[in-house]
Write a structure and sequence with these properties.
It catalyses: dTDP-alpha-D-glucose = dTDP-4-dehydro-6-deoxy-alpha-D-glucose + H2O. The protein is built from 13 helices and twelve strands. It has 362 residues and is α/β, with parallel strands linked by helices. It folds into two domains: 214 residues, Rossmann fold, CATH 3.40.50; 98 residues, UDP-galactose 4-epimerase, domain 1. The strands form three sheets. Strands 3-2-1-4-5-6-10 form a seven-stranded parallel sheet, sandwiched between helices. The chain binds nicotinamide-adenine-dinucleotide and thymidine-5'-diphosphate.
């Protein structure tokens, strides 16, 4: 790495949000990025194939739980900032196997914070002053809302309901503690549901696009009335760049899209878009493929984000509305058949069998 003063280290950069972030960072900021990623089932180096010959990008395959490997990457690449995406991120998987979430999200974040602290403590005063550790988190740490509740703000008490949310909440508390106790320059973002290119096809939006395209059942959990706030992934990436540049140390910033939609609305809209872009007389109207299946245990009813703090203090607002972002996303999946084929590995097929066979039988 040549321009080490400007290097940032990203964890989990081969995943959905991380890979969008790395691509956009190279395009807009242009300084070097080291991507520390274990390449689990969710990590796909093909997402970053456009950077294969770009000297500003380097992949280090390592586990955030491996203190030695993390220390070696920090000492070799001397980053000016760490942007921490790496996590187990799928709620349904956290219900099947919570242990993996505690390991990666809690132990892994602790290991990264501790190695970052050691590295940062040994920097000279100027480098110490400008160093940043940005912890990427979720709105799910705040729990669930009823229809009339106000949206989650930065002062909403934590009330995580799934093992995923609990593990992210624990990691947020660790990040907070490293700022308060050790003065490590930590920033935290809590964002709503992202959608866009490169999302692993077990999450709602890509799963529904792919199943609709192929005329397969569209499994809607429960009554389909659960509400999420949706943010186009590029907007999340720009929010993270903004917080990294201008955020106040030790603060948390909620990031959202002002786009609350219930799941049935999201699935119906996908059906209509796929009908329009890939009409199929044999399949007919994709809405007929919707199948109500057994609900997710402990399924949070509604998430909503009050993003006034990041707007008022840092000047960030989302730029893509949900209808445009969803159309753009459907088009991306329809135009990237080979990407879809490549991620549909054995691990993905095993998951689909494990998660849906029993639900559909009910
Ligand atoms: P993802 O599951 O698509 O990607 C996770 C990445 O982390 C993968 O590249 C994987 O290989 C890597 N990884 C997993 N375990 C690792 C380990 N032990 N060491 C190193 N790398 C490891 O996740 P995503 O959807 O891109 O989410 C990224 C971050 O953003 C997560 O921290 C998540 O909690 C947060 N977040 C996600 C959303 C969303 O809607 N997807 C919303 C808000 C916040
Ligand atoms: P998901 O993409 O897993 O994100 P999260 O649970 O983190 O919000 O799910 C989004 C919503 O869609 C959530 O309410 C669960 C629901 N859902 C279904 O109805 N069917 C599915 O097959 C999946 C994967 C999710």
């Amino acid at each position: 790495m040549t321009d080490s003063k400007n290097t940032i280290l990203v964890t989990g950069g081969a995943g959905f949000i991380g890979s969008n972030f790395v691509l956009r960072w190279i395009e807009t900021v242009g300084t070097p990025v080291v991507n520390l990623d274990l390449l689990t089932y969710a990590g796909n180096p093909e997402n970053l194939a456009a950077l294969d010959d770009d000297k500003r990008y380097q992949l280090v395959r390592a586990d955030i739980c491996d203190a030695e490997a993390v220390a070696a990457a920090l000492n070799e690449h001397r980053p000016r900032a760490i942007v921490h995406f790496a996590a187990e991120s799928h709620v349904d998987r956290s219900i099947v196997d919570p242990g993996a979430f505690i390991h990666t999200n809690v132990q892994g974040t602790y290991t990264l914070l501790e190695q970052a602290r050691r590295y940062w403590s040994a920097l000279d005063d100027a480098a110490k002053e400008s160093f940043r550790f940005l912890h990427v988190s979720t709105d799910e740490v705040y729990g669930t809302l009823s229809p009339e509740d106000p949206a989650f703000s930065e002062t909403t008490p934590y009330a995580p309901n799934s093992p995923y949310a609990a593990s992210k909440a624990a990691s947020d508390h660790l990040a907070r503690a490293y700022f308060h106790t050790f003065k490590l320059p930590v920033l935290t973002t809590n964002c709503s549901n992202n959608y866009g290119p490169f999302q692993f096809p077990e999450k709602l939006i890509p799963l529904m696009i792919m199943n609709a395209l192929e005329g397969k059942a569209l499994p809607v959990y429960g009554d389909g009335q659960n509400v999420r706030d949706w943010l186009f992934v590029d907007d999340h990436c720009s929010a993270i760049r903004t917080v990294l540049e201008k955020g106040k140390l030790g603060e948390t910033y909620n990031v959202g899209g002002n786009s609350e939609r219930n799941n049935l609305h999201v699935v119906n809209t996908i059906c209509d878009l796929v009908d329009e872009l890939r009409p199929d007389p044999v399949i007919g109207s994709r809405r007929k493929l919707i199948k109500y299946v057994a609900d997710r245990p402990g399924h949070d009813r509604r998430y909503a984000i009050d993003a006034r703090k990041i707007a008022n203090e840092l000047g960030w607002t989302p730029s893509v509305d949900f209808e445009h972002g969803l159309r753009n996303t459907v088009e991306w999946y329809l135009n990237h058949a080979s990407w879809i084929e490549n991620v549909r590995s054995g691990a993905y097929l095993t998951w689909i069998k494990q998660n849906y066979e029993e639900r559909i039988a009910q």
